[in-house]
Structure formats: structure tokens, C-alpha cells
Design brief:
Number of domains: 1
Number of strands: 7
CATH architecture: Alpha-Beta Complex
Bound molecules: nickel (II) ion
Largest sheet: 5 strands, antiparallel
Shape: globular
Structural class: alpha+beta
Mean pLDDT: 97
Strand content: 25-35%
Helix content: 25-40%
Distance between the termini: 32 Å
Length: 171
Amino acid sequence: MTIKPLIILPDPLLRQVSVPIETVNAELLKLADDMLETMYDAPGIGLAAIQIGVPKRMLVIDVSREDEEKNPQVFINPEIVKSSDDLSLYEEGCLSIPDYYAEVERPATIAVKYVGRDGKEHMVEADGLLATCLQHEMDHLNGVLFIDHISRLKREMVIKKFTKLAKGKAV
Ligand code: NI
């Protein structure tokens, strides 16, 4: 397993729409392992492939608490098939937007169809943190970031700050 460099705002890669995965093979599973390694190292609770520069529809999640056993989960070609009308509010962050947090409202319960690392189709009903995390990561597959769900003013401030930071590094 290898820790990969993270793609950071305002890298245009983050706005790219990822493509569906056709085959679950050893190469793809290695990518999943690298994503998990990178996520745990950060540390974070979710990561989409595009965040390490690979525009494929795959994400990894582990929302287990510190006092629980690790629970790495891999979602390939995930799709929301049902979402609740009731919403829940979570303070979100993103490994591609380090040290910035904001409250985002999303459907509280969702049903997601996906392909697992076994190559088979699965369905999961998620609520709480897992529901929020799945929606946040699935947004990444469509080039959407959590800051797209906050006010325009706040979003523009964040983008400006990270654009400045990136320029500083380039010099
Ligand atoms: Ni994110």
C-alpha cells in the first residue's frame, strides 16, 4: 500500500467528473488499498479516487469511532437510489480543503447501490455520519465539493484563500 499525494483546492482535477469502472481487477483493488492508506494517514473518514488524481468512480470510507475496530469500506460506481425528505446537519471537512469546516445539510437517510471489492452489486441503507460521508464522497465523483453547498460568499472566500496559498507554494 502506498500513501499518495492529495489533490488540493483549487486544482481543476477536483471539478472533473469521474468515469464508471468496468472491471474490478487486482489493479483496481490496489488503488482502493492505496486510497485507504492515504485516508488513514491524513487522517480522514472518506476519500474519492479523484482526490489522488484518479478520475474513477470509487470511494473509500471508514466512519468507525476511535474505540471501535477499523471498518474500511470500498464503494465502486455508487449510486443513490433513495433519499429521505428529512435532513441532517453535519459539520463537514474535506482532505482536499484542509483545515476548513462548515455545516452542510443533506438527506438524513439514503439507499445506495454499489459494487463491492468482491465485484458484486450491493445495496446499503445509511443514516447518520455514514449517510453524510457517502453523499460528500459521491459528490466528488461528479466534481462537486462540500463548499458548493454553503453560501456563495463563504465559498468564494475559501476558494480565494486556497488560490492564494497555491500561488505561494508555486513561487
Ligand atoms: Ni471531500
